[in-house]
Structure prediction request, 351 residues.
Amino acid sequence: MWNGNPAILRLIRAEIKTRGPVSFAWFMQQVLYHPEYGYYSSGRCAIGRRGDYFTNVSVGPLFGHLLAVQFAEIWHRLGKPYNFVIVEQGAHHGDFARDVLESARKHWSDFFAALRYKIVEPFSILQGRQSQTLQAFRDKLEWYDSIDALQPFTGVHFSNELLDAMPVRLIAGGMEKLVDFDGKNLLFVERSVHDSEKFNQAALDWVENVAAKLQSGYILAVDYGKPQSKSQATIQVRAQHRYLDSPFDGIGYADITAHVDWTSIARCAERRGLRLAGFTDQHHFLTGIISEWPGLAQDIGAKTKRALQTLLHPEMLGRSFQVLALGKGVVVAPSLAGFKFAQNSHQTLGI
Ligand SMILES: C[S@@+](CC[C@H](N)C(=O)[O-])C[C@H]1O[C@@H](n2cnc3c(N)ncnc32)[C@H](O)[C@@H]1O
Prediction:
């Protein structure tokens, strides 16, 4: 067992002493987002070679450059509006935003001129790091603490590995795993439940909130998960490029994520007036985008080729990640470039 942050452990034990066993969602919220000690909110989270894990963004600028192609296509589809907004949530140190903006400036000056980039970032330490990374684009950027604070917008809401970082309850077969303390260690206890469909409420609230702010355009979410999962969240605990055995190891120093249940999110979005505009794995998504960018093959050196392989290869990130697109106020057929090689999304998601 790897010891965690004593301050956050004290806080969790005190809560359990007062109210009894707590839901895993509450536990995850404290461990990742407690204002002082949380893994993300404290700025402790490190991504990349010297950090705890890799993401598409940390592989290099190519991911942002490819997504810029997709954003530019969306801008065209929406009739080239002058105030085209990209909202990014979960922007970490701002690398993805920089890669998108650099690519837009280099390849599509009209699109770049129309572009406004809004980062939803509740944590001031991360806002500070993002603003350093993005100094060259200051006049394009705005920050917001929450989705609620955003004005209604036309454009895209984008996230990479935001949804897997949202708190979940651990429910399966009518039983919920709660977090308890036996006087020495944290441990799981089980209780029967009647609201098992509410295991990923934070993600469902999120899609409702974004739907309410999107006037026309798309939500594009990249993450790893499963279509049609049966209400059991699978969690992963990662630190220093290793998987830890238990969420009670390295509390406050390790990342905890849960596989995204794409079907329930898409279903909830459709109830809120969004239309399913595509669902596929990252391999097919990026291949579709690349097919719209014939110049790419000539542009790239050895480093970018390696990055491309990491993003596309089915045994690297290509199959483990998926992309969901939800549209509002747009004609969703024919599909966006990223989904031109996708199978029927409704069928894949079982809705
Ligand atoms: C796994 S990291 C991914 C970072 C980055 N997108 C990347 O791919 O490298 C998850 C990020 O989501 C952020 N996050 C979680 N909940 C959030 C919320 N409600 N609003 C904004 N950011 C959030 C965390 O602070 C963290 O920076």
